[in-house]
Design goal:
This protein is 77% helix and 4% strand. It is mainly α. Helix 2 (11-20) crosses helix 7 and helix 4 (65-93) packs antiparallel against helix 8.
Length: 195
Amino acid sequence: MNHVWGLLAHPNQEMHAIKQENESVSHHYTHHVLMMAAIPVICAFIGTTQLGWNLGEGQYVQLNVLTGLGLGIIFYLLMLGGVAVMGRVIHWMARDYPQRPGIQRCTVFAGYVATPLFVSGLVALYPLVWLCVMVAAVALVYTGYLLYVGIPVFLNIDRDESLRFSGSTLAIGVLVFEVLLALTVVLWGYGPRLF
């Protein structure tokens, strides 16, 4: 958790600090990912069960507590899996580099890069659809910036190579993000029938 502010305020310095640590995946999940992934889940649970999704024009869709809890658990597990998948993607993308980090280091890196997406979940306390989409888009752009800043440090490559690597990784990350969103929407749509 001590890297959150640094990643948002001075990411270049923070990436160097993260690289110096030899953090294990279990430590990283326990001290960063599990807590950060809880932010959007808890905020969405509160927002959707207390206020309801604001679809505009006075339309609100409110979930009951049991449905919100079930969907929250599924959403949480999907986010944890998404970090692990992106760690594997980064590891696979780095296969041609001489200083290729191990899959554990790649997963840790993916967890830190996802920090803006986790923090953006705060907006779900007031679940206005257009506002949530706008904040998620800004968080996704900043995540791309963290990739661009962090990849040269992480893989010891130059900035030009980093732009290609981070662009490709971000494209795959956006695909994973969209799959997670699609699964969440499908589950949210069928959630009242499931729970």
